[in-house]
């Protein structure tokens, strides 16, 4: 810091200080939040376009602090990731989602799958495969009902490690989806060499699907790539009937997005599956 007389000992500018303070406060509050059970999972439906049926849902974390206000993951996942708190938080999320999927099976929603987001740091964590395997064994959930969503960036950080983890869990029946496909290093190498079941086409390509010829071309290419490689295709961020119609016509297998529903509490998702949807 500049020499400012009495204050020349200060290490941080006021704005850096504020930023660091914010992060420290958040870290502390996330830790408290974990202890006080303030995190909840919402579920967003994923529909199979051929069956016209909700076949799966994605677990999305929310933080319910002070009363009813929900804090969104964008406001705390990055800090949880940086501080390492994503490890206990991520473990809680996995276990919660697995027990929810199990409850759905018991409530007559046989075959309804759950998808769980795995952050980079969590994926690199030693023992992740064991923790998942052990939770599946303890709960008795059919591993085929669990899918883990990982980004391209996460997989590319350490390909050998990714391969080991994915093969170990893949052998049990756990599925892997590439999240935000098209936004990272979309390498054909990993598509060929890792046990990937599903590509989730990033919502940025879906948004202007009907008006931007580049997006149309990219989406067409991804869908046909999936067909060739026998990988499931899912379009994210589908908001309009027009988008859904186009995707169906092109042979995209599944859609997810506000058109079907926003992320919702588990009981609302259950009702939706029971009652069926008419998109
Ligand atoms: P994501 O995994 O790509 O999740 C999809 C995000 O898009 C969700 O935001 C979802 O609410 C939103 N979305 C879904 N459909 C539509 C749509 O039709 N239009 C638009 N505009 N948005 C849509 P959300 O829940 O705020 O999550 C944001 C990100 O935070 C997620 O992106 C994921 O990267 C991260 N995240 C959320 N939950 C978890 C979690 O449990 N663990 C980890 N590690 N990360 C999570
Ligand atoms: Ca995701
Ligand atoms: Ca597999
Ligand atoms: Ca995504």
From TrEMBL:
Residues in EAL domain copies: 23-277
Keywords: Kinase, Transferase
Catalytic activity: 3',3'-c-di-GMP + H2O = 5'-phosphoguanylyl(3'->5')guanosine + H(+)
Superkingdom classification of source: Bacteria
GO annotation (BP), single: cellular response to nitric oxide
Keyword Kinase: yes
GO MF term list: cyclic-guanylate-specific phosphodiesterase activity; kinase activity
Protein name (database record): Histidine kinase
High-level lineage: Bacteria, Pseudomonadati, Thermodesulfobacteriota, Desulfarculia, Desulfarculales
Region of the whole protein represented: 275 to 553 of 555
């Amino acid at each position: 810091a500049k020499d400012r007389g009495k204050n020349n000992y200060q290490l941080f500018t006021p704005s850096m200080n504020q930023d660091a303070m914010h992060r420290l406060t958040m870290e502390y509050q996330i830790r408290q939040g974990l202890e006080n059970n303030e995190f909840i999972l919402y579920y967003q439906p994923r529909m199979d376009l051929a069956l016209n049926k909700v076949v799966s849902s994605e677990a999305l974390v929310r933080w319910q602090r002070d009363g009813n206000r929900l804090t969104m993951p964008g406001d705390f996942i990055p800090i949880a990731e940086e501080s390492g708190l994503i490890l206990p938080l991520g473990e809680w999320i996995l276990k919660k989602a697995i027990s929810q999927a199990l409850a759905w099976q018991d409530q007559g929603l046989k075959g309804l799958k759950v998808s769980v987001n795995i952050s980079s740091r969590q994926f690199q964590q030693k023992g992740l495969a064991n923790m998942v395997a052990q939770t599946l064994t303890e709960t008795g959930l059919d591993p085929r009902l669990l899918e883990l969503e990982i980004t391209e960036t996460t997989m590319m950080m350490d390909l050998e490690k990714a391969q080991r983890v994915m093969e170990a869990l893949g052998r049990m029946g756990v599925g892997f989806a590439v999240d935000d496909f098209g936004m990272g290093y979309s390498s054909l190498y990993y598509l060929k060499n890792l046990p990937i079941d599903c590509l989730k086409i990033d919502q940025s390509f879906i948004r202007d699907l009907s008006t931007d010829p580049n997006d149309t071309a990219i989406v067409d290419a991804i869908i046909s790539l999936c067909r060739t490689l026998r990988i499931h295709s899912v379009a994210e961020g589908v908001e309009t009937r027009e988008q859904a119609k186009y995707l169906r016509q092109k042979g995209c297998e599944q859609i997810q997005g506000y058109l079907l529903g926003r992320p919702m509490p588990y009981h609302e998702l259950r009702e939706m599956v029971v009652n069926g949807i008419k998109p």
